[in-house]
């Protein structure tokens, strides 16, 4: 096997290249013709040297072996944190090398394998579970672990999230949520509410209504793998900061750290499933990872200890999960509101000593934990902040929306807008439905955003057909495109009735891989085509700071005076340097 | 019309509205909304009235006892962060009121805090999600619901849970993924609350749809303090869903019809419509399937094992003149396979309530299992730990993880070569062998007396016995708050 380039050897080579520490060596093990495992050392220069060892193995699957010099592993290494991935230990191979063996799964990223394997070698104790590693991370992470890139990106998220929350406070569904809280509970003058200077609520209720506002128009940020990370976290962190006494308000940097912890935890959890990389089918992701992110952020802000942080996550897991069926209804914004509220609640309960499963993130056969929400769940421990943890936000930037609809709509809208431009040129002007014979959309297959004739604004925000036709008609999609008057336009319906959908194989339902293509056949037989690979606002083509601020101004000025809007921009801009986050909070009051 | 899953290069023609793209079958959610709205008190049969009154009494007794637990007190302290103008009673607390949603939360937690509440088949704890929500809601309604209104709404909440449990074959077995009360409980609470609020058929459907977004807690939190929260949250969030639907909030009106709706909680979801209750086709599930009442505060499966262990102990005592526990060499338990109730060495009360091993050994050691068996001091006894180390658990193929089919068998082998086996097929309290009314009332008295004065205990018994004739069901709340004075003092000095 010395020259074979199986996926396992390639992954091991990548790993070996990254494993700069001289104390680590990597080998690929594979069964030979006699069923014995034969090992090949892979060195960091990515060449494969001759086989040096043999390890008997019953399973016969390819394995990666990590050797660590000078550390004595105990046989507790055989503890199966994850029942499917059995780590065993062999001291016999080399006198001074310890060995951890990991069965390689095609889906695992090399870096994650590296981290978990090394971690198991270092902390072979039974309490070294995935759940405990998360609790420890949340409890031990410090502001100095935030890199300039992470700070910059997270401040953009905070600003955008506040902006969409402010404009969201003008929606019907927000009114309903707020009325509910005011009707069911006595006034409680603690935490502020977006766009309502005279209203204050209990912290969890404020987190709820502000979360609803953030997602009320589906205008909030989207990450990859797909979830809306900020709306579940920011309202909870704001409400909890409001709750803290003036003498103990978090600094701006503590505030940003808690926010980033909430984002990071969501990103890590999303990577526990391959399925989760695609546009979802069963559970609405913000209801699954959102409460966990909110709980983590609040646990960080409350400075809970590592065990309480784990419990906060486990309590939140019991409050997670809502079916996709409520997408495109008024109940979907409530998903984000509840994620924010319930995560805060979980952290507050954990701080009171409430306990939950210490294995909630781990795999235990026959007793589902967080794995209940996934069909292909594979948890990985989180690297301790002291061992060179890097925030996911550093590698994976955020998608910001330019108009209030499901992210998938942005590709077809841009593609359709380019066809509009071909037809009427730059500038105002409408496409007449009489010119159009047929509209073909080539989009990914995802049932819940395929709605031929949407009847409500919530359905319109989840309709390829609607967004493509609106852009074709008007040259753009805006906040106004989703008003009842705009939705019911006869010329729009005339276009909608001419739409066909195709789902090409090369267009997967995945925000990192999908494209949008619009092909319009005119009455005369001419064919016009528009295609969008990466819309402006996508993480590969991020909004400039100017565009982001322009979006914020447009949103915030709907409810706030311009002076206040500029002060908010300024407060978020210097957030990491504020001694007291009250300077931000007071702008929202 | 079925849309193929895989995308093709050819066109995929969608000829209709979203319903055709989305829905597995139609009209199921609607039929539930219609039934919740239309079911009337005249449809309650004697059998259903009798059975549901037993459930209510048992739930209240178990809940009153549960107000003495640590988990209840944590939940209560948290909930006291919230206030409201119209507030609801907390069972066993004369001085405290909370907003209705939080009263439903803490009272629901009390009911399940010791895992002492009723169990149905297919497996769920039906009453704890419904009764606390209804009592909390009834107290704040200007319409002042009668006892019969309460009884009807309660049965609607139970019925909806029973129907939903029958949408999956898997659900007939002891669960592995989601804790059933966290799935169907919140739906039952929403249905019952919608009924008491008198919502329209469409609002009832939306209440269910909204509640579905609050459903589902993973099983991993069983045997922890968070499990009682599953019932409390089901009560709270179902009530909240009904209130939101009343205000006009909408969810997916086909929630029950779809695999991506309530179906996400099951691997083999196969929903069916609720029969029209105006026609003769409607029949209450409770009529045909009674519930089980627990005699010990532990997971239902423990009851088989405790009864088998007691019988084995009795046999051995009969056979050996000087029976000595230290002579036991091996204890073999034959139980159904269910990972979350197989706990060899429990360290907390919550684990002990979910441990075959613990319950069998407690029974062997003490000749009984009671509320006191789950005290920390009892759990940590060296004699018990020694006995636990001799336990072997076997899961024979003929012992199914279903409360309708399982059995419990205990085999004891001693150093002197004695060997005896006892088996329990149906414990006393199981639906095939229901508790006598006398024993049910006795269980209530013992539980309730730990918190209420005699007048309160007797008052609750009297009201429940005559619930269909009571003009205002809120009279119940006053009795539930009649605490015994000594306990009040203990609470006020912070001794508990």
From TrEMBL, chain A:
Matching InterPro entries: MmgE/PrpD_sf, MmgE/PrpD_sf_1, MmgE/PrpD_sf_2, MmgE_PrpD, MmgE_PrpD_C, MmgE_PrpD_N
UniProt GO cellular component terms: mitochondrion
Any Pfam family hit: MmgE_PrpD_C
Enzyme Commission number(s) from the entry: 4.1.1.6
Catalytic reaction list: cis-aconitate + H(+) = itaconate + CO2
Lyase as UniProt keyword: yes
Compartmental location: Mitochondrion
Biological process per Gene Ontology, one example term: innate immune response
Domain MmgE/PrpD N-terminal: 134-375
UniProt keyword list: Antimicrobial, Immunity, Inflammatory response, Innate immunity, Lyase, Mitochondrion
Domain MmgE/PrpD C-terminal: 403-576
Major subcellular site: mitochondrion
GO molecular function annotations of the record: aconitate decarboxylase activity; protein homodimerization activity
Family recorded in the similarity comment: Belongs to the PrpD family.
UniProt function note: Cis-aconitate decarboxylase that catalyzes production of itaconate and is involved in the inhibition of the inflammatory response. Acts as a negative regulator of the Toll-like receptors (TLRs)-mediated inflammatory innate response by stimulating the tumor necrosis factor alpha-induced protein TNFAIP3 expression via reactive oxygen species (ROS) in LPS-tolerized macrophages.
Quaternary structure and partners: Homodimer.
Protein name: Cis-aconitate decarboxylase
Classification of source organism: Eukaryota, Metazoa, Chordata, Craniata, Vertebrata
TrEMBL record, chain B:
Pfam family, one: MmgE_PrpD_C
Annotated MmgE/PrpD C-terminal domain residues: 297-466
Any GO BP annotation: defense response
GO molecular function annotations of the record: aconitate decarboxylase activity
Sequence ranges assigned to domain MmgE/PrpD N-terminal in this UniProt record: 33-263
Membrane-crossing residue ranges in chain numbering: none
Annotated GO CC locations: mitochondrion
Top-level division of the source organism's lineage: Eukaryota
Family (UniProt): Belongs to the PrpD family.
Name of the molecule in the record: Cis-aconitate decarboxylase
Species for this entry: Gambusia affinis
């Amino acid at each position: 096997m010395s020259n074979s380039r199986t996926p396992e050897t390639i992954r091991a080579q990548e790993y070996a290249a990254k494993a700069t520490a001289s104390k680590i060596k990597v080998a690929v093990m594979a069964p030979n013709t006699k069923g014995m495992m034969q090992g090949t050392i892979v060195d960091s220069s990515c060449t494969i040297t001759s086989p040096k060892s043999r390890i008997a193995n019953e399973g016969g699957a390819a394995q990666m072996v990590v050797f660590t010099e000078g550390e004595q592993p105990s046989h507790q290494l055989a503890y199966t944190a994850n029942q499917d991935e059995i780590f065993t230990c062999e001291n016999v191979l080399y006198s001074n090398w310890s060995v951890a063996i990991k069965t390689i799964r095609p889906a695992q990223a090399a870096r994650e394998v590296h981290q978990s394997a090394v971690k198991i070698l270092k902390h072979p104790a039974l309490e070294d579970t995935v759940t405990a590693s998360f609790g420890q991370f949340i409890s031990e992470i410090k502001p100095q672990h935030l890199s300039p890139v992470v700070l910059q990106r997270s401040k953009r998220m905070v600003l955008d999230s506040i902006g969409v929350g402010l404009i969201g406070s003008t929606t019907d569904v927000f009114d309903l949520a707020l009325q509910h809280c005011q009707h069911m509970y006595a006034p409680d003058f603690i935490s502020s509410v977006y766009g309502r200077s005279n209203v204050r609520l209990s912290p969890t209720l404020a987190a709820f209504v502000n979360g609803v506002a953030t997602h009320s128009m589906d205008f909030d940020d989207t990450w990859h793998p797909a979830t809306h990370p900020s709306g579940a976290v920011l309202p909870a962190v704001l409400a909890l900061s409001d709750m803290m006494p003036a003498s103990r308000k978090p600094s701006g940097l503590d505030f940003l750290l808690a926010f980033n912890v909430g984002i990071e935890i969501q990103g890590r959890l999303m990577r526990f499933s391959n399925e989760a990389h695609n546009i979802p089918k069963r559970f609405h992701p913000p209801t699954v990872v959102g409460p966990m992110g909110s709980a983590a952020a609040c646990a960080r802000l409350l400075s809970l200890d590592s065990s309480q942080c784990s419990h906060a996550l486990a309590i939140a897991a019991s409050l997670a999960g809502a079916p996709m069926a409520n997408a495109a209804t008024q109940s979907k914004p409530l998903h984000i509101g509840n994620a924010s509220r319930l995560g805060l609640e979980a952290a507050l309960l954990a701080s009171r000593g409430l306990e939950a499963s210490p294995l909630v993130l781990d795999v235990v056969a026959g007793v589902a934990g967080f794995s209940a929400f996934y069909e292909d769940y594979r948890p990985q421990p989180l690297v301790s902040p002291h061992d060179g943890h890097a925030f996911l936000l550093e590698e994976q930037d955020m998608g910001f929306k330019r108009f209030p609809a499901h992210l998938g709509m942005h590709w077809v809208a841009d593609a359709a807008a380019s066809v509009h431009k071909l037809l009427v040129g730059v500038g105002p002007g409408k496409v007449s439905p009489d010119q159009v014979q047929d509209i073909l959309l080539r989009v990914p297959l995802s049932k819940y955003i395929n709605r031929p004739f949407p009847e409500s604004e919530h359905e319109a925000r989840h309709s390829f057909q609607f967004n493509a036709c609106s852009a074709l008609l008007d040259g753009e999609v805006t906040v106004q495109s989703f008003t009842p008057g705009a939705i019911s336009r006869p010329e729009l319906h005339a276009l909608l009735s001419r739409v066909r959908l195709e789902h090409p194989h090369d267009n997967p339902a995945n925000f990192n891989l999908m494209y949008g293509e619009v092909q319009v056949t005119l009455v005369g037989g001419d064919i016009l085509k528009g295609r969008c690979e990466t819309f402006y606002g996508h993480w590969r083509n991020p909004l400039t700071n100017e565009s982001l601020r322009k979006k914020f101004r447009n949103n915030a000025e709907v409810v706030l005076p311009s002076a206040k809007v500029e002060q908010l921009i300024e407060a978020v801009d210097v957030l990491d340097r504020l001694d007291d986050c009250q300077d931000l909070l007071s702008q929202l009051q | 019309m079925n849309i193929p899953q895989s995308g093709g290069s050819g066109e995929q023609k969608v000829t209709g509205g979203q319903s055709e793209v989305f829905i597995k079958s139609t009209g199921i959610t609607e039929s539930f909304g219609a039934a919740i709205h239309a079911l009337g008190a005249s449809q309650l049969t004697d059998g259903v009235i009798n059975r549901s009154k037993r459930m209510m009494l048992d739930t209240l007794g178990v809940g009153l006892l549960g107000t003495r637990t640590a988990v209840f007190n944590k939940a209560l302290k948290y909930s006291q962060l919230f206030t409201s103008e119209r507030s609801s009673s907390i069972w066993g607390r004369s001085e405290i009121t909370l907003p209705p949603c939080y009263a439903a939360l803490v009272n629901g937690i009390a009911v399940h805090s010791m895992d002492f509440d009723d169990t149905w088949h297919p497996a769920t704890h039906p009453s704890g999600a419904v009764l606390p929500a209804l009592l909390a809601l009834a107290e704040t309604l200007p319409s002042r619901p009668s006892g019969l209104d309460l009884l009807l709404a309660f049965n609607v909440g139970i019925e909806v849970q029973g129907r939903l449990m029958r949408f999956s074959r898997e659900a007939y077995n002891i669960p592995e993924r989601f804790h059933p009360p966290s799935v169907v409980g919140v739906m039952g609470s929403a249905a019952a609350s919608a009924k008491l609020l008198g919502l329209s058929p469409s609002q009832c459907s939306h209440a269910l749809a909204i509640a579905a977004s609050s459903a589902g807690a993973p099983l991993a939190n069983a045997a922890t303090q968070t499990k009682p929260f599953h019932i409390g949250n089901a009560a709270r969030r179902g009530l909240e869903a009904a209130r939101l639907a009343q205000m006009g909030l909408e969810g997916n009106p086909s929630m029950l019809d779809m695999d991506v709706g309530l179906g996400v909680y099951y691997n083999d979801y196969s929903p069916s419509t609720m029969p029209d209750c105006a026609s003769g086709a409607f029949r209450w599930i409770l009529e045909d399937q009674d519930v089980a009442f627990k005699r010990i505060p532990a997971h239902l499966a423990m009851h088989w094992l405790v009864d088998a262990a007691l019988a084995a102990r009795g046999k051995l005592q009969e056979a050996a003149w000087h029976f000595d526990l230290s002579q036991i060499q091996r204890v073999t338990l034959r139980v159904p396979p269910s990972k979350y109730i197989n706990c060899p060495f429990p360290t907390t009360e919550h684990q002990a309530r979910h441990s075959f091993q613990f319950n069998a050994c407690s029974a062997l050691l003490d000749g009984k299992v009671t509320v006191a068996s789950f005290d920390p001091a009892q759990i940590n006894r060296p004699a018990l730990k020694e006995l636990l180390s001799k336990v072997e658990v076997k899961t024979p193929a003929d012992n199914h993880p279903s409360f309708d089919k399982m059995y419990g068998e205990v085999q004891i082998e001693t150093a002197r070569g004695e060997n005896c086996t006892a088996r329990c097929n149906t414990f006393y309290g199981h639906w095939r062998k229901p508790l006598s009314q006398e024993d049910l009332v006795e269980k209530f008295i013992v539980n309730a007396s730990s918190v209420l004065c005699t007048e309160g205990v007797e008052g609750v018994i009297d009201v429940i016995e005559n619930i269909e004739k009571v003009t205002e069901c809120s009279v119940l709340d006053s009795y539930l708050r009649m605490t015994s004075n000594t306990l009040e003092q203990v609470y006020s000095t912070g001794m508990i």
